[in-house]
Structure formats: C-alpha cells, structure tokens
Amino acid sequence: MNCFDVNDQRGAHEPVNKKKPxxxxxIKKHIESFxxxxxxxxxxxxxxxxxxKNLNIRRMYLLYKDECLKNGSEPASEITYRRIFSxxxxxxxxxxxxxxxxxxxxxxxxxxxxxRELEDDYLAHQERKKICxxxxxxxxxxxxxxxxxxxxxxxxxxxxxxxxxxxGLLYYSRKLCVYNLTIHEATLPNNAFCFTWxxxxxxxxxxxxxxxxxxxxxxxxxxxxxxxxxxxxTCGGQNRNxxxxxxxxxxxxKIDHLKVIEQKFLESGHTQMEAxxxxxxxxxxxxxxxxxxxxxxxxxxxxxxxQSIKIDGKKMTREAYHVKEFxxxxxxxxxxxxxxxxxxxxxDEKGKQVQWLKIKRIKYLKGEDRKIYFNYDMSxxxxxxxxxxxxxxxxxxxxxxxxxFNKEEETTY
Length: 413
What we know:
It is a single chain. By secondary structure, this protein is an alpha/beta fold. It contains eleven helices and 14 strands. Strands 3, 4, 5, 6, 7, 8, 11, 12, 13 and 14 form a ten-stranded mixed β-sheet that branches. The chain has a two-stranded parallel sheet with strand order 1-2. A two-stranded antiparallel sheet has the order 9-10. A hairpin with a 7-residue loop joins strand 13 and strand 14 (383-386). Helix 6 runs parallel beside helix 7. The longest helix is centred in the N-terminal third of the chain and has 32 residues, at 112-143.
C-alpha cells in the first residue's frame, strides 16, 4: 500500500523566494551592459576585469532599478543583484597598480614556521630595496652638483578614460583609454613632463615608451648633459626589454652631447618615485567631467602651477608640467629596430644566459655601439652582451626620425 496521498500537493509549488529566469537574465543583461577593462599591469596574472572606478554595486543597482521602472518591470531586490554580481562575475571597481609588495605581504601574513622558510628571500629583497633607493638618492644628489649629469624617474600613469564623468548614462558607454607617461627630473627646479596619447594613436608597450624616451632625450635634455640615468619600475613589457635597450643604444650613438645613458630599475613592489607623485596631482586637479583629450591636457597643465622657489638662497622658477600629445605617426617600431641591430640578445660574452627580468642596471656607451653592459645587483661590476651588429648605421623611418630630431618644432602645450 502506497503511504503517499495522491492529493498531497506539497512540493508542487515554486518557493516564493525563487527568482524567475527572466528576472535573473535581466540582472545579468544589466551588469553586462557596463564596459569593462583589463588591469593596468596585471593582465597576465588575473582574469578579473574592472568596471569604472566611480561605480559601485549600490550605484549599479540604483541604475538597474531606474531602468526597470522605465520599462514597467518589477526590479529584483538589491540582495539578489549583489548575489548575482558576486557569484556570476569576476569583476571589481578599480585597476590595481601593484603598490603592495607580494614578497612583503606574504612574509607579513605567514605563520612562524612559514616565516623561517621565507626569511632569506625576504631579507635579500629588503636589502635590494635599500640598495636601489640609495642609488636613486645618490644620483639625485649628483644631478644637483654635477652640471654634466642628469637623473630622472619615469612611470606610466594608471589608465585614464574619455569620457570621465559621474553622469549615469555614461557608465554604459565604451570608454576611450588615455595613457600618460610622466618624467620627473631630479635636477632643481625639477622640470616635469606629461607625454600623453589615446588608444587610437598607440598602445602602452615598449615602442610607445621607447619613442617618448627618445623624444625626451633629443628635445628636453640640456646640451651640457653628457650622462643621464633613467629610473623606472620593473615592468618588462614597457621598460626592461630588448626593444627599449636597442633604442637607447642607438640613441647614445646618435645624440652628440650624450656619452652615457643608464637604465636603473627599482626593486619590484617598492618602486615609489617622484614621477608617481605627478599622477596623484593630475587626478587631484581633475574636479570636473572630461570629454576630450584637450581637457585631459588642460588638467595635466593645471596640476602644477608656475611658481618662484628659493633653495639655499638661490631663486629659480618651477614651471608647470610640460605636456605633449603623441600621434600615431610619431611612434617608432622598436621591434623592427631591435630585429635589425640585435642579432644576439640572449647570451653574454661568457656564454651565460641573459636574464632580462632580473636585470637591475643597463649601461649604454658612446663608441661601444655593439655592446650593452648590464648587471643584476646595481653594482659597478658589469656583464657584457655583444649584440653582433652596428646600430649607428641603422636609419629609423624617415618621417618619424625627422619629427624627433627637429628641435625647432614646438612640441609641448
């Protein structure tokens, strides 16, 4: 005998808290209507994508609710919206700059036993950080006592956008990415430069960074400077690579007054530089919506006002940021340059593998047009890589080269 009554309707009704498929699909459609972007540095490290930094889940839900009311449909609760956002999507609202050091963070969070395992690497990392910072400070002092020496820091600002506004409907618009490479001189009065371009005109790779460095060396460095050091972070795709190396080796042979160019890379996770402070000033001076490149350029110019300063009894003028917008036809193809002149880029003169990602210092010398000097510890002892060709005989694309070498042309706003 069956113990179940056929008239028992328990379980035949949907739970009152179960959401209909069309409501769930409506929430997903709304979340997916917001344009996303990749991380500033972390594209290879994470699949997470990033929404406009001015958004948050609460604001997204209110926009969703407004849309439902306009369409005459019933909105889901904010709890449901948040649950779907969190469980169904790998999204966040900011672009990480890797300001936190992974080695230091892992060591700080480790238990006592794990700390013992990590201690040697952690202490070596801390020592490298101190050495790099001392080297930067040493060059900063020298740049203000030796008129033939200059030291600068440079860094790519986190991606900016057009339009940049809190207007609700603009959150659904595809944004144009804007890039800004800042260069800050250690020599007083600390001239500083913003070199900017949009994704229409270029990417944010080694060719763009190298082209801007060449423009700076040609047009912004005083003729009395014979030696310059360039400090940056350790981003391999932008700064520490064979393409920028080929360009700087070519440049030191071509620029008459320069005899030595050096790249120096700060310790990963501890790359705070003067050029970074320009980024915060740029954002701080943005107190309105931005709808064009010219408006971003205006913001960069307003970020630092022209002012008279007095240091050690000496009066001098600190100018506003010098700003230049780069166009598509101004960028050089550094991959072509490296392919033509760097026949060897993997072995040093002793036959050892060149570990590009561990290099701390690269030196380029006038007259040494087939050799790149490098080391892994910021010391004065260098390994040597013979590139196997003569870069001084190589000619860049005629139009780009003439633009870069034309010092009479007005280059900044």
